[in-house]
Amino acid sequence: MVLKKSPSVLAEFVAAQAAEERRGVRGLEECRTAFATEGAGVLSDDEVLQLVAAGTIPAYALEKHLHDHVRAIRVRRALISRASASGTLETSHLPYHHYDYSHVHGQCCENVIGVVPLPVGVAGPMRIDGELLHIPMATTEGALVASTSRGCKAITLGSGASTVLTRDAMTRGPCLQMPSVLRAAALKAWLESDSGLADVRAAFQATSRFAKLRSLKIALAGRLVFVRFTTFTGDAMGMNMISKGCEQALRLIQERFADCDVVAVSGNYCTDKKPAAINWIDGRGKSVVSEAIIPGAVVRSVLKSSVDDLCRLNVSKNLIGSAMAGALGGFNAHAANTLTAVFLATGQDPAQNVESSTCITLMEPANDGQDLRISCSMPSIEVGTVGGGTVLPPQAACLDMLGCRGPNRECPGAHAQRLARITCAAVMAGELSLCAALASGDLVRSHIALNRAVPPTPASTPQTSVTPQPSAADLRTSSNKGSA
Ligand SMILES: CC(C)(COP(=O)([O-])OP(=O)([O-])OC[C@H]1O[C@@H](n2cnc3c(N)ncnc32)[C@H](O)[C@@H]1OP(=O)([O-])[O-])[C@@H](O)C(=O)NCCC(=O)NCCSC(=O)C[C@@](C)(O)CC(=O)[O-]
Ligand SMILES: NC(=O)C1=CN([C@@H]2O[C@H](COP(=O)(O)OP(=O)(O)OC[C@H]3O[C@@H](n4cnc5c(N)ncnc54)[C@H](OP(=O)(O)O)[C@@H]3O)[C@@H](O)[C@H]2O)C=CC1
């Protein structure tokens, strides 16, 4: 938000407008007294605005003082409207009514001015590990849900998706500084000793019923010591949980090493919300691999492609093309597309799509070349079914659809692992369909049909000598010889 007026001008503006427009609004001092003695609930909106403009009530604390989410948002919108050049927010289409704000404050967002509804489509059903599931996807990219659905159909007509979870451990990598390289090496040696690890583990695990410290990975950069805490976090994605545990462990380390200076609880050795090879190689969150066999007939009838064309495209694009581009975990077509849509629908932290969507997609002929084998290997899917946005009712409803809402009380961690497996299978469906569309030359056509609201009519097309665009069929014959 850009405030175009200074706070004092703003105060005058609000006060003057309130005085002009609403006779009977109490003056500032009277409002202050009423607020101090009876609370903000007894004030009119204009009176509250005066107090906010005068700095008596911080704009971000309106919920706390008004005990009414909708009213707090209404007052905040009025304040921003009157303080900004455009002045549009108060009456804008950003909705704020008919929303359950009870879980928002203190967990999901501050300074709320409304909600941005996203369409949620459903892909599937897809058979995943023997179970038929419908997958909710929040997106504004037309064709994405249709494409994932097509992939789900092809997979389900084939073997179904099988998934394996190879690792489940969230990481946090604080940065510590020692007085010298020798002292840094001494700290490293202690952390790597059985007794050091046991002491750190005890301190760390005392902060949570669910966190289990699996290992420490230590790297030195001069006298800086980076410690990657690798932790099981139950059904939580785990960043708050593990950061809390790290803080406690760092206190213990400082008790043992009085010359240890904690530079930051996150030293980017985690690595959270940034591309990094360490996540691609060692994994972060859940590491999952999904696989399916698609019969050749289904490749032809549902995907409009062939086994050979898909394998050739996968090697050329997802492996060689990505290598040529210097990809870091991006050996796929659009894992981030499907994953982010599932993340948004199910209340995951959207910024973690950076590392969560790293994926290598492999395709090879199966059953003597008749059928297609596809797999997606995703080392860093960071998901939870408790905490963060998972508590919001719409997101929780999507988790319910997938049978993994909230904590799994019998087997903590099973819900989050299930969500990671489903996400990996959904990504595989998206990979299959987009690669097929690219192999058959259908990508652009499908996006013009499903991802652009008003196709140009002949009347609105410029009558200049534009080279005619090839049709999908032309593209198919020219660029994909041998396609079905
Ligand atoms: C759009 C299709 C699926 C049509 O594909 P089609 O083969 O013409 O579809 P169809 O009419 O024969 O239907 C086949 C199945 O697709 C599904 N399907 C079909 N239409 C719908 C629909 N409207 N709504 C829901 N589901 C739909 C549905 O499952 C249907 O089975 P049915 O239910 O009829 O038995 C196909 O052309 C396609 O997959 N295109 C690719 C679109 C895509 O994947 N877009 C993703 C974004 S691309 C991008 O952003 C990333 C990129 C490209 O830049 C990354 C890169 O560099 O590679
Ligand atoms: N702090 C940071 O640096 C970062 C924070 N985030 C944000 O962190 C939030 C998520 O943090 P996260 O730690 O996942 O969630 P929470 O902070 O909500 O922690 C999980 C809570 O759920 C409790 N719990 C109950 N049942 C279970 C169960 N079955 N499994 C696991 N925990 C259970 C835990 O208990 P107990 O108290 O016993 O552990 C804990 O209190 C998101 O909003 C995300 O955006 C994202 C990146 C970085």
UniProtKB/TrEMBL annotation:
Any one GO biological process: isoprenoid biosynthetic process
MF GO annotations: hydroxymethylglutaryl-CoA reductase (NADPH) activity
Entry's localization field: Endoplasmic reticulum membrane
Keywords (A to Z) from UniProt: Endoplasmic reticulum, Membrane, NADP, Oxidoreductase, Transmembrane, Transmembrane helix
Catalytic activity: (R)-mevalonate + 2 NADP(+) + CoA = (3S)-3-hydroxy-3-methylglutaryl-CoA + 2 NADPH + 2 H(+)
Entries under InterPro entries matching the protein: HMG_CoA_Rdtase, HMG_CoA_Rdtase_cat_sf, HMG_CoA_Rdtase_CS, HMG_CoA_Rdtase_eu_arc, HMG_CoA_Rdtase_N, HMG_CoA_Rdtase_NAD(P)-bd_sf, HMG_CoA_Rdtase_sub-bd_dom_sf
Associated pathway: Metabolic intermediate biosynthesis; (R)-mevalonate biosynthesis; (R)-mevalonate from acetyl-CoA: step 3/3
Chain spans, region Disordered: 454-484
GO cellular component: endoplasmic reticulum membrane; peroxisomal membrane
Keyword Lipid biosynthesis part of the UniProt annotation: no
Pfam families (alphabetical): HMG-CoA_red
UniProt feature, compositional bias: Polar residues: 460-484
Major subcellular site: endoplasmic reticulum
Family affiliation: Belongs to the HMG-CoA reductase family.
Alphabetized PANTHER family for the sequence: 3-HYDROXY-3-METHYLGLUTARYL-COENZYME A REDUCTASE
Protein name: 3-hydroxy-3-methylglutaryl coenzyme A reductase
Biological source species: Coemansia reversa (strain ATCC 12441 / NRRL 1564)
